[in-house]
Design brief:
Strand order of the largest sheet: 3-2-6-5-4-1-7
Helix content: under 10%
Strand content: over 45%
Number of strands: 7
Number of domains: 1
Radius of gyration: 12 Å
CATH architecture: Roll
Number of helices: 1
Oligomer: single chain
Mean pLDDT: 84
Length: 79
């Protein structure tokens, strides 16, 4: 998984927002939203750090694989 790759979610997915008052906050990212990989492998059940609407969240890599579609078009990369 390369930093900077973007995915559009085709169905809603769960994530954990980190750094919120020193804790973690569960969030749901709706279908149609775009997330950008910050770090982490997308292998198996490992967590991947992503940016979602300027917020740092962690998602399971498998959710990106099964619920998301990588954005390859350079025009859409600007989203």
């Amino acid at each position: 998984m390369l930093t900077g790759q973007k995915f559009i979610l085709k169905q809603s997915s769960r994530a954990i927002e980190t750094g919120v008052s020193g804790g973690m906050l569960p969030v749901t990212i709706a279908a149609g939203e775009v997330v950008e990989i910050v770090s982490g492998p997308i292998e198996g059940d490992r967590m991947v750090d992503v940016l979602y609407k300027g917020r740092s969240v962690a998602m399971f890599g498998i959710d990106l694989k099964t619920h998301g579609v990588e954005i390859l078009d350079k025009e859409h990369q600007k989203l």
